[in-house]
Write a structure and sequence with these properties.
With 237 residues, the chain is an alpha+beta fold.
Length: 237
């Protein structure tokens, strides 16, 4: 945590965080860094190439410049249409010609606008497949804020106190996932979600389960470890 204004932070701060994370990752692990437009800087790309040697797929702006075929132009010049994805290989990113990289313009039918990605992967389909996993993180943010734990309303302003709150909320998040899985595996999901389909997330099921257990006089299980019995149970989708 650090004290700053709302919005994007600097490349230097992102790299400082990644420097802390990098020693925790096994040296033989394959790492795919997924990020939004804050991670598309030349400085970030150069750091990954020089220090981490990870794969990455990050979003970039439509006015980002790429060099391709001897021309420098913004990605918005690509003739992409709804339902169509375009890929440029061996591009140089920005006027600094950082690369070679992939540039992707993807416009899915259910989206109002295309998104633009850059990646150091060789396979455009795999790059897009990996990037789609990033959307799962958005549910984590909403679960910790507006849809679950309203930590954004804590009114805490000191970075060290916010760090402790975030740590506690993260442990509680894992606990809610455990409770949600437990409700499904034990066949009691219908007590808190009486529908024929599962509309609620595992987190939401766990939070509702925590609310109802004391009402029924049942003990509240506390665990942060998801056993194989829970993870691979036939009832869990």
């Amino acid at each position: 945590m650090y004290r700053g204004k709302k919005g994007h932070t600097t490349t230097a701060r992102h790299i400082a965080v990644l420097e802390l994370v990098r020693p925790l990752i096994p040296s033989d692990a394959e790492v795919i860094l997924l990020g939004d437009g804050e991670y598309d800087s030349v400085g970030m790309l150069q750091w990954i190439e020089a220090h981490a040697r990870w794969h990455l797929v990050v979003r970039t702006a439509q006015n980002s410049l790429v060099q391709y075929g001897g021309h420098l132009f913004p990605l918005s010049d690509l003739p992409v249409e709804p339902g169509i994805s375009l890929t440029l290989e061996n591009i140089g990113f920005t006027a600094q010609d950082c690369g070679p990289l992939l540039a992707l313009a993807c416009w899915e039918l259910d989206c109002e606008d295309p998104i633009y990605l850059i990646s150091n992967l060789d396979d455009a389909k795999m790059a897009l497949k990996y990037y789609k996993r990033r959307y799962r993180l958005e549910t984590l943010f909403s679960d910790k804020k507006s849809r679950g734990f309203p930590i954004h309303k804590s009114h805490l302003s000191l970075p060290n106190r916010l760090s402790r709150l975030l740590l506690a909320a993260s442990l509680a998040f894992i606990w809610m996932i455990y409770l949600g899985l437990s409700a499904i595996v034990t066949g009691q999901r219908t007590l808190i979600d009486p529908t024929h389909r599962q509309d609620k997330s595992l987190f939401r099921l766990g939070l509702d389960w925590l609310t109802h257990l004391p009402k029924w006089g049942q003990p509240i299980p506390l665990s942060f470890f998801l056993s194989p019995d829970l993870l691979f149970h036939k009832s869990v989708r």
